[in-house]
């Protein structure tokens, strides 16, 4: 029996792919976000979450070439929390809830307090 070459280039699947389960509200429910192949890497997902493009419920990562998949929700929540701490940017309440509910690391942040009447 002759082996046929794959019609899918090997390098397209030989990477980690991230998919986001998004909450579209009580009426519409949750669905996997339709994503362009080029936008399924970790960095693009992190940027999408930080910019408010997603209201994530769960994030799954898989690598078809290596034959594995896993729930990456807590890893992504921890990475987002670290970025927020490092950049000191404001984030949406939905993203705060996602990080608080899904993250495994706790980040202690000292907020600056205004000193009234200080000379």
Structural description of this entry:
About 30% of the residues lie in helices and about 20% in strands. The protein has helices spanning about 10-15, 40-50, 75-85, 95-100, and strands at about 15-25, 30, 55-65, 70. α3 packs across α4 (about 95-100). The N and C termini lie far apart (about 85 Å).
Strand order across the biggest sheet?
2-1-3-4
State the domain count: 1
Number of strands: 4
DSSP helical segment count: 4
Low-confidence stretches: none
Chain-averaged pLDDT: 82
Short structural description:
The protein is an alpha+beta fold and 119 residues long.
Secondary structure elements and pairings:
Layout: H1 10-13, E1 17-23, E2 30-32, H2 42-50, E3 56-63, E4 68-71, H3 73-87, H4 93-102
List keywords for this structure.
119 residues; 32% helix; globular; alpha+beta
């Amino acid at each position: 029996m002759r082996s046929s070459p794959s019609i899918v280039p090997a390098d397209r699947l030989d990477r980690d792919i991230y998919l986001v389960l998004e909450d579209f509200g009580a009426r519409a429910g949750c669905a996997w976000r339709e994503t362009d192949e080029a936008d399924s890497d970790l960095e693009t997902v992190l940027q999408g979450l930080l910019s408010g493009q997603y209201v994530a419920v769960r994030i799954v990562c898989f690598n078809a070439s290596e034959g594995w998949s896993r729930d990456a929700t807590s890893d992504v929540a921890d990475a987002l929390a670290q970025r927020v701490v490092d950049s000191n940017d404001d984030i949406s309440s939905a993203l705060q809830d996602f990080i608080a509910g899904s993250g495994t690391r706790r980040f202690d942040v000292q907020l600056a307090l205004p000193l009234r009447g200080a000379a």
